[in-house]
Design a protein that fits this description.
The complex is a heterodimer.
Chain A (H helix, E strand, L loop, with lengths): L2 E4 L2 E4 L8 H7 L23 E7 L18 E3 L4 E2 L9 E4 L5 H16 L15 H9 L17 E2 L4 E3 L9 H9 L5 E4 L6 E4 L12 H5 L5 E3 L12 E6 L8 E7 L2 E7 L12 H4 L2 H5 L7 E5 L2 E4 L2 H13 L6 E4 L6 H14 L4 E3 L21 H7 L2 E2 L3 H6 L3 E5 L18 E6 L4 H5 L2 E4 L9 E3 L4 E4 L44 H12 L8 H11 L8 H7 L2 E2 H10 L1
Parallel strand pairs in A: 1-6, 17-18, 17-20, 18-19, 20-21, 21-22
Antiparallel strand pairs in A: 1-2, 3-4, 3-5, 3-6, 7-8, 8-11, 9-10, 12-13, 13-14, 15-16, 15-22, 23-24, 24-25
Helix pairs in contact in A: 8-13, 9-13, 9-14
Chain B lengths: L21 H6 L4 H8 L5 H11 L11 H6 L10 E6 L9 H7 L1 H14 L4 E6 L4 H16 L15 E6 L9 H8 L23 E5 H5 L1 H7 L1 H5 L9 E8 L5 E6 L4 H8 L9 E5 L8 E2 L10 H7 L7 E6 L4 H15 L5 H18 L5 H14 L7 H15 L1 H7 L9
Parallel strand pairs in B: 1-2, 1-4, 2-3, 5-9
Antiparallel strand pairs in B: 5-6, 7-8, 7-9
Helix pairs in contact in B: 2-6, 2-10, 3-6, 5-6, 14-15, 14-17, 15-16, 15-17, 16-17, 17-18
Classes of the chains: A alpha+beta, B alpha/beta.
């Protein structure tokens, strides 16, 4: 097997491994500073930060043996210049020296860092990137102690709105061209290019054109400085004030892995989380706007229609009592339960289990598909995150929900804005008793007889099955009225030592929504109706599903966490062959 | 050779009127070499490569690499497209020789390029001419059309099955597009950014296909080699760097201009006899021998130096493009260096950090010194910066910017120190 020596340590790599030396070093858990390189894109080797010394062993032309020096060590032919490790291919026997073992390399990296910084504004105190800025971090680690630059900095355009979502500060730009390469190689919109020459250059869209790529905000994530910022998020929060919680994008069927960034119980932004099997490093812009749904327009406390068309807020006891009484005054055959591709596997399961026990067998759902909306990349025709999951649980797909509704007397709906998206009309629900478990205010919630607020993906741990049959789960990122995050074991806590410190500012009570997870509502309803059901945490619900539904065999939160999601199709196939 | 240059008969720009007219060119033996290799059965493509290799035409674009050897790096033809890209972007300050060929003898270059294409089994030739040479681009278009009309370009040359196309592309005013790989980018319609090598153009050049890039003057030497043989070529000038060279002499001389003379000309002969001495009877102070990026030489370093790569290397400089900038005793070296640095700052493409930031920094410090606001430590900072830039970038522009600074300061240090502030102020 070919070998490579990095800082005197021997490593092996596969024949034909086309990783560059930099990527190989990073994959070993070692570090070489870099800016322009990105593992998902071509290596332009333009930042000149990842310098290493490299050489190859000298072979005797006739025998093919390595030539040895007087100490019996292999003779090394060193490249005459420092090499950028990002663009340097690995060769058998190659010897590489990084900044850790070679002073010249450390010096060269420091030299480049000094040059990168001379025209950089160094406005970190007001820069959104501060705290998560590769330039800042690597300057601390590898940069010079001060600057010898005593002349005037180059001035360039500031606050340039490249498009509807991205704002450019050209002075901060270090011309790594990651954004340009993103639009060339990943989103393929080719909307950005570098203009001007030398220290005047910066990225921009063609004259008269906007940078309105549906993936434009990814350039903000990969920008190694604060040059590209999100127009929506800029100046809203400092990185170190927020908690980062893994989650899933709910605006499409792809199941894009994301992080939710929380401050004082509000989601401030959503960024993509790497998952090579699903979304790589990227996410569509639309998914990032979903954070507003988690904070704004939430239904807090149940509401009930007492007389006429007007709803009024009511107590939880009264809501559950009304729910139970309504059911008891009807027969199970009168009830239609509509599951939701917008809700999680656990919520849909809890709903189905309780009503099934009571005798209902009419479980339907309406897929939320917009033909032609998909782009073959991360945007799908499917507008819901869990269509496959609802199907696998046994909800029957219905393309004519209004005729289903007309046959029922009680319609129970789980978080799905069916009237808003035109699947049902207000008239369809006339004369029925309609109940909606919902996260947000919407037209549908406004017309039903009973509205029960439930937790959204940012508030509970729950699983979603994407269009490819991959089950992935969320973590609670914000508290509800009844959830104390220090007591909720599913809750991602960021830094444990934050609790009780001055920096932990989760204090604004209004930011907590008065809602509970759907399975807890089912617990209360079952309890009131004398049904033998008791759901524990969502983790236990998934264990129950895995134990009872063959499609979910062997699925657990632990496996989902360890394997970054489980493909239900292939894991079942493996079962079959095993 | 040094003494017999006076009897040298120019071959690249001979003293024949209206040579740019194709009929006139043909009348004077033009396109014979092309016919000889394409039609003649004793000239296989490989034979042409070997003949040119033997002639040791050192690339006239500045690097001085054996042209025939470069041709031999092309992989065997695989039926796919391959390209010859002719570099007429000459933009280095002090260099204006290819212009002379475009203007006075365009068909010599065209013939040379066609022979090169035949030798490497190439069917498409591009000539890239800098955008500022607008009228020469137009003249080249006309010359190519004339050659096409006569059947020297197009399908089935001389009734053989060899066909070739030849196109002109104009640059848009960027020095960096004279760097061979950014010229390829520019030809592809992209921004002129040098490419990371490897892969080299012979493996992956224009549109990812095998490509050879040659300077205009280099190619213009090819027909002579074919007509008269490599031995004839090697008999002109020194053996290590043979052939006729277009010397572009500018600066403080009485008769600046482009002169065709053998390689290896004694520098002092070029200045004093060919260019007829320093203007106003002044004394020579310094010479930049091969375009602004080549290190400047003091007058006392020019003793016995001749214009070939070996002699110039020994003296501490380079042959470059043989664009000689002559400076008289009144020249302000600080000012001259600042002007050169200004050029590289303006022309850095901005791709690599050391060049993008370094060229600007160099210029700004030099401006400070020029304005009498510099300090001695600024000189050391300048020298330090040159090491931070040299060899640290994708292409050689950073080197080209760093060398003049390093060598001008080292060779004229007292002049720079005299311009700095007298007192050294304390560093807090």
């Amino acid at each position: 097997m070919p070998e490579i020596f990095i800082d005197g340590q021997r490593y092996e790599f596969e024949e034909g491994d086309d990783r560059g030396v930099l990527q190989f070093i990073l994959d070993q858990g070692k570090e070489v500073p870099f800016f322009c390189y990105h593992p998902a894109m071509s290596a332009p080797a333009n930042c000149r930060q990842c310098f290493v010394k490299a050489g190859t062993p000298v072979k005797d032309r006739e025998t093919g043996e390595f030539e040895l020096d007087e100490n019996g060590e292999r003779k090394i032919r060193w490249f005459p210049k420092m090499q950028t490790s990002c663009s340097l291919g690995m060769q058998d026997g190659m010897v590489v020296k990084t900044q850790e073992s070679d002073e010249d390399v450390a010096r060269a990296q420091k030299d480049t860092m000094e040059l990168i910084l001379i025209n950089h504004p160094l406005d970190c105190p007001i820069c959104d990137q501060a705290g998560e800025c590769p330039l800042q971090i690597q300057t601390y680690k590898y940069g010079p102690e001060g600057s010898r630059f005593e002349v005037k900095k180059q001035h360039k355009p500031k606050r340039v709105e490249l498009g509807p979502r991205v704002t450019l500060d050209a002075e901060r730009c270090i011309n790594c061209t990651r954004c340009v390469r993103f639009t060339d190689e990943i989103s393929e919109s080719h909307q950005l290019t570098i203009v001007q020459r030398g220290d005047k250059n910066y990225p921009i869209a063609a004259p008269g054109r906007e940078f309105n790529d549906p993936y434009s905000l990814n350039t903000v994530d990969i920008c190694p400085v604060g040059a590209l910022t999100s127009t929506d998020f800029r100046f809203k929060a400092r990185v170190w004030e927020m908690n980062q919680t893994p989650s899933i994008d709910i605006t499409g069927g792809k199941g894009t892995n994301v992080d939710l960034w929380t401050r004082d119980n509000l989601i401030m932004r959503i960024t993509p989380r790497f998952n090579g099997e699903v979304n790589d490093h990227w996410m569509p812009d639309a998914g990032r706007e979903a954070y507003k749904r988690f904070n704004e327009n939430r239904i807090s406390r149940p509401a009930i229609k007492l007389d006429g068309d007007n709803q009024s807020k009511t107590s939880w006891n009264n809501a559950i009592e009304t729910f139970a009484e309504t059911l008891e005054s009807h027969k199970p055959e009168d009830v239609l339960v509509i599951g939701s591709p917008h809700a999680s596997v656990e919520e849909n399961f809890a709903l189905m289990k309780v009503f099934n026990l009571w005798g209902v067998n009419n479980f339907k759902f309406a897929p939320h598909i917009e033909e032609g909306a998909g782009d073959g990349f991360l945007i799908t025709d499917d507008q819901a995150p869990n269509t496959s999951g609802v199907k696998l649980l046994g909800y029957e797909e219905s393309n004519d929900l209004s005729s289903e509704v007309s046959d029922a007397e009680i319609v129970i709906m789980l978080s799905d804005e069916l009237i808003d998206r035109g699947t049902l009309s207000k008239e369809d629900l006339k004369g029925k008793f309609s109940i909606l478990l919902s996260t947000n205010e919407c037209e549908t919630a406004a017309v039903v007889d009973l509205v029960i607020p439930v937790t959204c993906i940012a508030e509970h741990a729950a699983s979603y099955v994407n269009v490819e049959g991959r089950i992935q789960r969320s973590f609670p990122a914000k508290e509800t009225k009844y959830k104390d995050r220090s007591l909720d074991l599913e809750m991602n806590q960021g830094r444990l030592d934050r609790f009780g410190t001055n920096f932990d500012n989760w204090v604004t009570e209004e930011n907590k929504v008065d809602c509970v997870p759907a399975w807890e509502i089912m617990n209360q309803l079952a309890d009131r109706m004398g049904l033998e059901v008791k759901f524990g945490q969502s983790r236990e619900i998934m264990e129950e599903i895995a134990g009872s539904n063959p499609a979910f065999e062997n699925v657990s939160y632990e496996r989902m966490d360890n394997e970054m999601g489980i493909n239900l199709n292939t894991s079942n196939k493996q079962e079959a062959t095993a | 050779m040094a003494s017999d240059w006076k009897s040298f008969e120019p071959v690249l720009i001979p003293d024949i009127p209206n040579l740019d007219k194709i009929d006139n060119y043909i009348k004077n033996g033009g396109y014979k070499a092309l016919e000889k290799v394409v039609k003649g059965s004793d000239w296989k493509p490989g034979d042409v490569v070997n003949e040119v290799k033997a002639a040791n035409i050192r690339g006239r674009g500045g690097a001085g690499f054996n042209a025939g050897l470069k041709w031999s790096f092309m992989p065997p033809a695989d039926g796919g497209p391959r390209y010859l890209a002719c570099n007429g972007d000459e933009s280095e300050p002090g260099t204006f020789k290819d212009r002379k060929i475009f203007e006075y003898n365009p068909h010599l270059f065209i013939e040379g390029a066609l022979i090169a294409a035949y030798a490497m089994e190439i069917t498409t030739i591009y000539v890239y001419i800098r955008g500022e040479y607008y009228s020469w681009i137009k003249m080249m278009e006309k010359a190519l059309q004339d050659a096409r009309d006569k059947g020297f370009i197009g399908k089935n040359l001389f009734g053989t099955d060899y066909s070739v196309e030849f196109e002109v592309t104009g640059g848009a005013g960027a020095y960096i597009c004279g760097e061979e790989t950014s010229m390829l980018e520019s030809l592809e319609g992209k921004r002129g950014y040098p490419r990371v090598k490897p892969p080299f153009p012979a493996q992956k050049g224009l549109w990812g296909r095998p490509t050879t890039i040659n300077n205009i003057e280099t190619l213009a030497n090819v027909p002579g080699v074919i007509n008269n043989g490599s031995d004839w070529f090697k008999s002109i000038g020194p053996e290590s760097h043979p052939g006729p060279v277009l010397y572009g002499i500018s600066g403080h001389v009485n008769r600046p201009g482009v002169y065709e003379l053998p390689a290896g000309m004694p520098v002092m002969d070029l200045i004093n006899e060919v260019a007829q001495g320093i203007r106003g009877g002044k004394k020579l102070k310094a010479l930049i021998p091969g375009g602004s990026s080549t290190p400047v030489l003091r007058a006392d370093q020019l003793e016995g130096v001749s214009m070939d790569s070996d002699s110039l290397r020994e003296a501490g400089s380079m042959m470059g493009t043989a664009g000689m900038i002559v400076m008289d005793e009144d020249t302000d070296m600080v000012d001259a260096l600042w002007r050169i640095s200004h050029f590289y700052h303006h022309e850095s493409c901005g791709q690599c950090t050391p060049c993008r930031e370094g060229t600007g920094w160099l210029e700004k410090i030099l401006l400070k010194i020029k304005n009498g606001e510099g300090e001695i430590r600024d000189l050391d900072l300048l020298l330090d910066l040159t090491t931070q830039m040299e060899g640290r970038t994708i292409c050689a522009l950073a080197d080209a910017a760093a060398w003049p600074v390093r060598h001008t300061i080292n060779r004229f240090r007292d002049e720079f120190e005299a311009r700095c502030k007298k007192s050294v102020h304390a560093v807090a």
